[in-house]
Amino acid sequence: MSEAQHMTGGKIAVSDLSVTFVQGRRRIRAVKGVSFSVKPLESFGLVGESGSGKSTVLRAICGLAPVSGGDIRIDGGAIQQPRDKAFARRVQMVFQDPYGSLHPRHTIDRVLSEPLSIHRFADREERIVQALKDVGLDARFRFRLPHQLSGGQRQRVAIARALIVEPEILLLDEPTSALDASIQAEVLNLLNRLREERSLTVIMVSHDLAVIDHMCERLLVMRGGEAVEALDRSSLADRKVSSDYTRALLTASEGYVR
Amino acid sequence: MSPASSEAPLLDVKNLRVRFETTRGVTEAVRGVSFTVGRERIGIVGESGSGKSMTGRAILRLVRPPGIATADRLAFQGTDLMALSERRMRAMRGRRMSMVMQDPKYSLNPVMRIGRQLIEALKVHERISSKEAQRRALDMLADVQIRDPERVLAAYPHELSGGMGQRVMIAMMLIPRPDLLIADEPTSALDVTVQLEVLRILDDLVKDRGMGLIFISHDLRLVSTFCDRVLVMYLGRIVEEIEASRLDEAKHPYTRGLLECLPEIGAPRTPLKVLKRDAAWA
């Protein structure tokens, strides 16, 4: 199978994607010709350190970053420019910071009912109750404001909001890096359960190789806007990596070596 | 230093408490912790709200009102810190015991060049000429593995990367050659590969200077590989104290829970163990 066929066969295919930010006279190339494709129902990871362009790739898929080259296809079709309502219905994103991604003066009920009214769902009441239950939040949280919730609870709300419109594709941008380790475990377990139940295709971004390894079948290591190496779970487990950078990340994930 | 003084602990803390009295009642952030620190690397680990940072601040008497810190004993090299006047305490801070905070972005003065900030730190503690201070600052930056110290001296904080900024902070804190360094999540804002470089620098400094280090972190895996001894805190109390090398033998369910909830590369894809909090731990 040629690379081109493989690329078009995916649920999401990103090929030769470049993102360039223009700041006055400066041009910053945040993503430089990155390609990957994600199969239906697969979980795909993007790993890298700050400035690697991993989050920018996700934002580019959502139309939140200026694409300067290459293309992004979903089910083989090009994405509408700008992104339309149908796109938002199919693709949803969960952001890193549960403190910043929820409107501070909207109750959880309002946060969850907005996407339902935008997409004209009929049975809103039942859907909100069910959405809270799905992410393991007690019904009493429904009329609270974000500041009355802990970080982990807020991230559950963000996940509920993303899934309430029943998307096919879920984009996760460091969904647990602002959380305590024990809360991270709860949220990762929740995401794994929901992805199975909802038949989701997932792209997850993280700086933490162990988190990506736990969540994803395949992954792409990025650095400085470029793809360093594509790996699957088994080669990561066997430490069969070809680049020195991936090896350095692996070593670092094991802690300090005296 | 005489052998006798190196045997006695650098820091002796007994029944340290920090409480906040607000209109809605009293909250205790630290609820009676006791430990000693020698010339070693000691880790304080806990999740948010465990009181680990408050413990670090209370040692330096940096708890701000309405917070109130009390202790049966808070002694640094035999000196009772609770009894010191604010003026004497200020002389103690920096020169004898020092603190590195999490984010260099907020700890450095954004409108002052690095060089001026370093030299200011030097001149507060020693009466030296500007030329001498300049030379010492350059040496310090070289000590924390900064490759072109001249450029960094002339730079503003925003011109430095996170890793560089944190090195500058460490350099600044180490200028007066303190005996005890309290590092509160010193590497949490850094990338993993940079994190290890910064730890390497701290490690060498502890070894070369015989300094004591209190390393406060949420990252049990990191602390256990870096420190000699680990104190695990939960809701303001120390629930377990253990040699870092024997962390696998930890007994307290909270410590075990923290260890087991982390995903591990190559581990089977079963749901992660979830920490079941027990009201009895508090």
Automatic annotation (TrEMBL), chain B:
GO terms for molecular function: ATP binding; ATP hydrolysis activity. PROSITE patterns: ABC_TRANSPORTER_2 (PS50893). It comes from the Bacteria. Transmembrane segments: none annotated. GO terms for biological process: transmembrane transport. It is a peripheral membrane protein. Keywords: ATP-binding, Cell membrane, Membrane, Nucleotide-binding, Transport. GO terms for cellular component: plasma membrane. InterPro entries: AAA+_ATPase, ABC_Ni/Peptide_Import, ABC_transporter-like_ATP-bd, P-loop_NTPase. Residues 11-260 form the ABC transporter domain. It is found in: Cell inner membrane. The keyword Transit peptide does not apply. The keyword Membrane applies. Belongs to the ABC transporter superfamily. This is ATP-binding cassette domain-containing protein. It comes from Jiella pacifica. The lineage of its organism: Bacteria, Pseudomonadati, Pseudomonadota, Alphaproteobacteria, Hyphomicrobiales.
